[in-house]
Amino acid sequence: MAGSVGNHEYSGYIEVSRGDGSIDRRPFKSSYTVMEPMATISPTMMNVLYAGIANPISISVPGVPMEKVQATMTNGSLVRNGDHWIAHPGKVGSEAEISVSANIEGGTQKVGSMKFRVRKLPDPSPYLAVKDGNGNIAHYKGSPKRISKGALMESPGLGAAIDDDILDVTYSVVSFSTVFLDQMGNAIPELSDGAK
Fold first, then answer.
1. Which residues of 32-42 are buried (b: 16+ CB within 10 A; e: fewer)?
2. What is the Cβ-side half-sphere exposure of residue 91, based on CA atoms within 13 angstroms?
3. Which residues pair with 97 in a beta bridge?
4. DSSP secondary-structure letter at 66?
5. Rg of the chain on CA atoms, in Å
6. pTM higher than 0.90
7. Cβ atoms within 10 Å, residue 154
8. Which of 28, 52, 77, 79 gives a 20 to 30 Å CA spacing to 99?
9. Which of 86, 103, 93, 157 is nearest to 127 (CA)?
């Protein structure tokens, strides 16, 4: 066991008995490096945590089994979920700090920490799920062109999503209202208690 951080060399010899009873001595020499324990904390979505959702986090300590790694979080809660962690941050606009410790050689040692900004989840945008010219489902958001009445009637309903390719958050539409114009130009409101 090394008593200090850095490169260390070791050497020795191995003695092997030959068939004639003599001893063959074979020397060896090698080296190894001792590093300070460190933690790897990686947000799997971005370098921020979003309030109101489960934020998956990867935490590892090289050379330490996962069951010997502990983590805590300020401004929220952090729960182990198999080999990953789930962060639920608290107050928006504040920082959350994840601190990691590990059981190394029978003692608990702090091995790293990382600060995250806590942000409000962006508001979702509504869309209609309609089929495009190839029969694929597309998200129609009102532009750049109009859709036909047939495409509108075939739509399974209204959906909502964040306009972001990084965040994968699922929303359910619980109600919406629309306004139709009749042939006389009168506005007729319609209410729905679901997504259809």
1. eeeeebebebe
2. 6
3. 115
4. G
5. 30
6. no
7. 13
8. 52
9. 157
**Residue 153: DSSP 8-state:** H
Residue type, 98: I
Half-sphere exposure of 190 (CA within 13 A, CB side): 10
Q: What is the pLDDT along the chain (196 residues), one digit of tens a residue?
A: 566 766 778 888 888 888 888 888 888 888 776 766 666 666 555 688 999 899 999 888 888 888 889 999 999 999 998 888 999 999 999 999 999 999 888 888 888 899 999 999 888 888 888 887 787 888 888 876 778 888 888 888 888 888 766 677 888 899 988 888 888 889 999 898 988 8
Task: Output the six-digit token pair for 149.
Answer: 């009445």
Give the pair of three-digit tokens for residue 31: 């080296």
Cα 46 to its chain centre, rounded Å, is: 8
Q: Cα–Cα distance between 66 and 82 in angstroms, integer?
A: 9
Q: Whole-angstrom Cα distance, residue 128 to residue 136?
A: 13
Residue with tokens 């952090």: 78
**DSSP codes joined into one string, 68-134:** GEEEEESSEEEEEETTEEEEEE-STTSEEEEEEEEEETTEEEEEEEEEEEEEEPPPPEEEEEEE-TT
